[in-house]
Design a protein that fits this description.
Layout (H helix, E strand, L loop, with lengths): L3 H32 L1 H9 L3 H28 L1 H8 L3 H14 L3 H16 L3 H25 L8 H39 L1
Helix pairs in contact: 1-3, 1-5, 1-6, 2-3, 2-6, 3-6, 4-5, 6-7, 6-8, 7-8
C-alpha cells in the first residue's frame, strides 16, 4: 500500500534480511535469559534472595555485553551478513540501513529480556506475559502507524521505538515488583520454618 510497485517488493525483501539478522541477537538472548531461569527459580524457592539478585545482575551484565558487541557489529559489519542473501546493490544498501535502524534499541532490549524472563522465573507469569505481549503489540502498532504518517521505509523505526519504550516500562515494573516479591517469599519461608518448630 505505501511502498507501491517501485519500493514494495524491495522493502519486504530487505525487511526479511533484517529480521533474520535480528534473530542472531534475540536467539542468544533467549538462550541466556531462558536458560538461567532455573537458577533464579531454585534460589527463589529456597528463599535465597541474595543469590536471586546476584543471578539477575550477572545475567543482565552478560546480555548488556552481548548486545553492546552486536550493536557495534551492526554499525560496522552488516554488509557481510547482507551479502549472504543478495549482491544486488539496491537491496544491499537498504538492508544495511535497515539493520542499523532496527538495532538502534538492542542495548535497552537486554532489560526487556532479562526482566521478563526473571519475572517468569519468580512465578510472576501474568506480569511477564503482559509485558511481553505489550512489546509485540506495540511493535505491530508502530509498524502500521509509522508508514501511514511518514513513508513505507520509516516502518523500520518501529522496532527500536518499541524496544526502547518497552524496556523502560518493563524496567519500571520490575523495580516496583522485584524486591517486594522476594520479601514476600522470605516472609512465607520464615513463617513455614517458625510453624514447623
Amino acid at each position: 500500500k505505501y511502498g507501491g510497485s517501485a519500493q514494495g517488493d524491495l522493502l519486504i525483501s530487505c525487511a526479511t534480511i533484517v529480521q533474520s539478522y535480528m534473530m542472531l541477537i534475540t536467539g542468544p538472548m533467549i538462550g541466556i535469559t531462558g536458560g538461567t531461569q532455573t537458577i533464579i527459580s531454585y534460589n527463589y524457592g529456597a528463599a535465597n534472595s541474595e543469590r536471586v539478585k546476584q543471578a539477575e545482575r550477572l545475567i543482565l551484565a552478560l546480555c548488556l555485553v552481548f548486545t553492546s558487541c552486536m550493536f557495534l557489529v551492526s554499525r560496522f559489519f552488516p554488509v557481510y551478513f547482507v551479502q549472504i542473501f543478495t549482491r544486488d546493490q539496491a537491496h544491499v544498501n537498504l538492508a544495511i540501513w535497515g539493520i542499523k535502524t532496527f538495532t538502534l534499541g538492542i542495548i535497552p532490549l537486554s532489560l526487556q529480556y532479562v526482566f521478563v524472563d526473571g519475572l517468569t522465573a519468580l512465578g510472576r507469569t501474568k506480569t511477564a506475559l503482559a509485558l511481553s505481549i505489550f512489546r509485540k503489540s506495540s511493535y505491530v502498532a508502530f509498524t502500521i502507524l509509522i508508514p501511514a504518517l511518514f513513508s513505507a521505509k520509516h516502518a523500520f523505526y518501529a522496532e527500536p521505538i518499541s524496544d526502547i519504550m518497552c524496556a523502560c516500562i518493563t524496567s519500571i515494573v520490575f523495580v516496583l515488583v522485584f524486591s517486594k516479591h522476594l520479601k514476600a517469599r522470605e516472609y512465607a519461608a520464615n513463617t513455614i520454618i517458625a510453624t514447623s518448630e
